Automatic annotation (TrEMBL):
Lineage: Eukaryota, Fungi, Dikarya, Ascomycota, Pezizomycotina
UniProt record similarity statement: Belongs to the short-chain dehydrogenases/reductases (SDR) family.
Keyword annotations of the record: NADP, Oxidoreductase
Any one Gene Ontology molecular-function term assigned to this protein's record: oxidoreductase activity
Xref: Pfam families: adh_short
Protein name: NAD(P)-binding protein
PANTHER family on file: DEHYDROGENASE_REDUCTASE FAMILY PROTEIN, PUTATIVE (AFU_ORTHOLOGUE AFUA_3G08550)-RELATED, RETINOL DEHYDROGENASE
InterPro entries reported for this sequence: NAD(P)-bd_dom_sf, SDR_fam
Length: 334
């Protein structure tokens, strides 16, 4: 069992509860990756508490299927936009579309992510986990922060992270060309390891984006990373039909061995995180560890000189990659 699982299960499964007076009446919410699992269930919660919600899907067909499911369960309407996180162009097209349509969002939940159990490259040439979970998510986050800071209203930007970020062995990380190293097939260790690597990279990037979102003493938007713990989701879908046995192992790992909470329960964390205050800007929200417990397990990945060196290098490399894909990035990170 992983250290992530032991830390959570050692004190019993914990999950967030939704306050009886919780309301998002009059607020608009954007949720990426909401055609299944946590994203879909978070959409249901937000709608049931008064919000207007727009979800994203990779294809119109998947979006329409999710829309029908959500609307039949809630009796509320949901809007759908197309977002392809496999490419930088897909991210830029998405942002340009809602800017042109003059859309307004009070809360943006970046839930879209992947966990590949075998090595797979993205169309951009990076390992798929790194492309979606790190590069595309960071590009989307930066473009959104720039846009949200131009608005007078306070808003929230939430990134779905994972406690698996503290399951890394930094001694195995190179000190240069980190993104390239972990994108090479020969350096792929396992699906679990690769996921944890991508999520630690994401945490490093969000730490940098926290500072951009609070530049000049103005905190806008309020940025948080959130992890609901171990949740039953469709993560095993990344296995192809030819590896049916591995599908069974993944499903058993998630649902039986770890006794994961249902997606609708885990999704509560993605909802209550939208009520954080400016004083809670930049914090990692999770229901399963106290602040002292989290400080203990996470310190080796953020507080040591080795960790700080790696974090700075990851951010430098990510910015270079993204600036080459979109020159606007250089203006945002200045």
């Amino acid at each position: 069992m992983s250290t992530f699982a032991r830390n959570i299960l050692g004190g019993g499964l914990k999950s967030d509860t939704l306050p009886a007076d919780l309301s998002f009446e009059g607020e608009t919410v954007l949720i990426t990756g909401a055609t299944s699992g946590l994203g879909l269930e978070a959409t249901v919660h937000y709608l049931q508490h008064g919000a207007s919600v727009t979800i994203t899907a990779r294809t119109a067909a998947k979006g329409e299927q999710a829309k029908l499911d959500i609307e039949s369960r809630t009796g509320k309407l949901v809007d759908v936009m197309i977002l392809d996180m496999d490419t930088f162009e897909g991210v830029k097209t998405f942002v340009n579309t809602f800017k042109k349509e003059n859309r307004h969002f009070d809360i943006i939940l970046l839930n879209c992510g992947v966990q590949e159990f075998v090595w797979k490259p993205s169309p951009e040439g990076w390992f798929a986990n790194i492309q979606v979970n790190v590069l595309s998510t960071t590009l989307l986050g930066l473009l959104l922060i720039q846009w949200m800071r131009s608005k007078p209203e306070q808003s929230h930007l939430l990134f779905v992270g994972s406690g698996s970020h503290w399951e890394n062995d930094l001694s195995k990380w190179p000190r240069k060309d980190i993104i390239t190293f972990w994108s090479k097939e020969e350096n792929f260790m396992s699906g679990r390891d690769a996921y944890g690597i991508s999520k630690l990279m994401l945490h490093y990037c969000v730490n940098a984006m926290d500072k951009i979102a609070s530049a000049g003493g103005k905190i806008s938007p309020i940025v948080n990373t959130v992890c609901p713990g171990i949740v039953q989701t469709g993560i095993a879908r990344s296995f192809g039909g030819g590896v049916w046995g591995m599908q069974c192992v993944a499903k058993a790992y998630m649902a039986l061995a770890l006794k994961a909470v249902p997606a609708d329960v885990g999704a509560r964390s993605l909802v209550v995180a939208a009520k954080t205050t400016p004083e809670q800007h930049g914090t990692f929200r999770r229901p399963y560890l106290t602040d002292d417990e989290y400080e203990k397990v996470s310190a080796p990945f953020f507080k040591t000189e080795e960790a700080k060196e790696i974090q700075a290098e990851v951010w430098k490399e990510v910015v270079e990659i993204l600036a080459a894909a979109d020159p606007e990035v250089s203006k945002i990170v200045l």
